[in-house]
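Notebook p. 47: complex prediction with S-adenosylmethionine.
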Amino acid sequence: MYEVRSAGAKGLGVFATSKILRGTRIFSERPTLTITAKQDIDSGDIYTVFRSLSAVDQASILQLSAHVTSPFLRWTHVLWYTTKELFTSFSIPRVASIRQHKSVLSIFRTNSFAIGGKSTIQQAIFARIARLNHSCVPNCQGNFDESRLCFNIHSTRDIEPQEELNISYLPEHGATHASRQANLTPAYGFECECPACDLSSTRGKDGEARRKQMQTDLAAFVERVGKGTETSPDMELGTIQKYIQLFEDEGIAGRELSTICQNM
Ligand SMILES: C[S@@+](CC[C@H](N)C(=O)[O-])C[C@H]1O[C@@H](n2cnc3c(N)ncnc32)[C@H](O)[C@@H]1O
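Predicted complex, structure tokens below:
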């Protein structure tokens, strides 16, 4: 159904090898590395968990791409962990493992999914799903299935053979271009060039205008609710219908479909 191959400047990516119909479950993957709710992603727990993995799992994680953010912070974590280990195990850490620790932290930031909610898992890496690149108008959507401890990826529209499979790395799908970019560049190190981000095209311009209008409508809605003037269910329904219309016009309606499908 899919293959992992070069996606040009994006690095590797996932591409359809045959037509994939809307609502298809494409991935259902157990985590390779898991940080539980009780563990601390800001301490040495990530590297401790990494070292407890099998050699195969460690290798699959080390092959993932990494956007290096906050190098000073990373080194501080690594040096703190190394010093603690020196005093608790009285073993001299190898330079290679210090370097590896720093890489693992960067890989974790670039590839992990926040699970949270009621799950015992706080954050996790799914080594195959981690190859999916971002689009602000994605054709796939991910959901964590708590009962099976699997992350599922469903197609949210029909996908043609050779088309790249994308998810959105952002939690909010109605955001404007500037706000999306302000989140993507520092965290992942790229400028999105998806159809919604091409503001020189009619499609990009129209989408941006729709999103801005929606932000204005939502802000007005929140203000009316705050003042207690949003009293009519019809007015409320009208705002929600406009939001659904935006998703349909943008071609991103379907997140709700994949959520319903997640346990199927
Ligand atoms: C989770 S990884 C995705 C898979 C990655 N391309 C690889 O080779 O393993 C996230 C990284 O992929 C790249 N990436 C993802 N989406 C992108 C996009 N729309 N445009 C450019 N680069 C992208 C960025 O380098 C980002 O830090």
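Notes: Residues 10-13, 64-65, 67, 110-111, 130-131, 133-135, 188-190, 192 surround S-adenosylmethionine (CB under 6 Å). The chain has a mean pLDDT of 88.
Next step: compare against the earlier run before touching the bench.
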